[in-house]
Specification:
Blueprint: H1 12-23, H2 30-55, H3 59-76
């Protein structure tokens, strides 16, 4: 996948922590640790968004819809 360079400004303490992780070979470069951190954050935000949207659902209404679909399906099944 093609990559794009961007400039990132971080506080000194964060840069020191990043540099320590690179120095102990936990990550091959500053870029890699920042890329992985951003990817992980975006992934968590996506999961949280799904949870937030699910929380908006009305359980009773969803159950009624599900049961309505099941009862219609049962009527279509042949007798054994």
């Amino acid at each position: 996948m093609p990559k794009t360079k961007i400039a990132v400004t971080l506080d000194e303490k964060t840069v020191e922590q990043v540099d320590r992780l690179v120095a102990c070979r936990a990550f091959p470069s500053r870029s890699r640790i920042i890329e992985e951190a951003v990817r992980e954050k975006l992934h968590r935000m996506t999961r949280n968004r799904l949870a937030q949207e699910c929380a908006k659902l009305n359980p009773a209404s969803e159950k009624a819809l599900a049961e309505e679909g099941i009862s219609q399906e049962l009527e279509e099944w042949p007798e054994y």
